[in-house]
Write a structure and sequence with these properties.
Elements (H helix, E strand, L loop, with lengths): L2 H29 L10 H17 L4 H11 L2 H13 L6 H18 L5 H23 L10 H4 L2 H17 L5 H27 L8 H26 L6 H12 L1 H5 L3
């Protein structure tokens, strides 16, 4: 495969990955009860950006790998621009979404404009990490505003799982060779998956839904089936000592991104 066709393929896959996340998020937005523009997967995209920052900061990557990862990270701007535009509309205006979108766009800018000098670059990336952290804090502030029943819908662990999958996919698309770091991502997915399942199970037991409707029971059932599907894919790859391919990661990303969707029906 020529360098030009390889670059085009990487760009196409990068756009498809963030495009899929954005499409799922917009579909959930069309179904949600709140009139404000509140993205369900924003914390996931911020998580993916933070992991990319960690690669730039700690990873010993050559200029070629760095350049490819910078280009792939540019597509995150698509997600944030769309949500910023929606949130600026009078009918859907929401300040916290504006803050998250600006933080996400700022991280994209910091990654794109990072200096080549080591000392300057590290300071630049630390600033980007702080901005991303502020974006995550903005998302967590939602729980002080939304009703307690909305917790399962906006629970941050599920989108964080999608964010780890998105970060893994980003590294694969950028043909990154940090195999040691990439090998840590599937176990991280398993931990987030387990914590999320336990958290939602505890929410059910503690009376988050005293008398669930038939629709709610069905939604919970699909929610946990999705957990088993993700776990099965990860366990099979682990037992067979397979690395997660682009196709496998796209499947995982779709399932993980749809987790908050099922909670809309509870």
């Amino acid at each position: 495969m020529s360098e030009q066709s390889s670059t085009f393929r990487a760009a196409l896959l990068a756009v498809l990955s963030i495009g899929m996340v954005l499409a799922v998020d917009l579909f959930m937005f069309s179904l949600q009860l709140q009139p404000q523009a509140i993205p369900h997967l924003a914390v996931g995209v911020l998580t993916a950006q933070l992991l990319s920052l960690l690669v730039f900061y700690k990873g010993e990557i050559c200029p070629g790998q760095c350049a490819r990862l910078v280009k792939v990270n540019l597509v995150f701007a698509l997600y944030w621009v769309v949500w910023l535009v929606i949130s600026l509309l009078p009918a859907y205006h929401y300040t916290l979404t504006n803050l998250m979108s600006l933080c996400g766009l700022s991280v994209v800018y910091f990654i794109y404009k990072q200096p080549k000098a080591h000392n300057l670059r590290n300071g630049f990336l630390r600033m980007a990490a702080l901005v991303a952290g502020f974006g995550l804090l903005s998302y967590l502030m939602l729980f002080g505003i939304l009703p307690s029943g909305a917790f399962v819908e906006y629970n941050p662990l599920a989108p964080m799982l999608a964010g780890v999958v998105l970060a893994n996919l980003t590294l694969v698309i950028a043909r990154n060779r940090l195999q040691g770091f990439i090998a840590l991502l599937p176990p991280t997915m398993v931990l987030l998956l387990a914590f999320n399942a336990v958290l939602i199970f505890m929410f059910i037991l503690l009376g988050g839904e005293n008398e669930p409707s038939a629709e709610g029971v069905f939604a919970y059932a699909i929610y946990f089936v999705c957990h088993f599907a993700i776990a099965a894919i990860l366990v099979i790859h682990s037992l067979q000592k397979w690395t997660l391919s682009t196709n496998s990661l796209f499947i995982l990303l779709f399932i993980a991104s749809c987790l908050p969707l099922w909670m809309l029906f509870v």
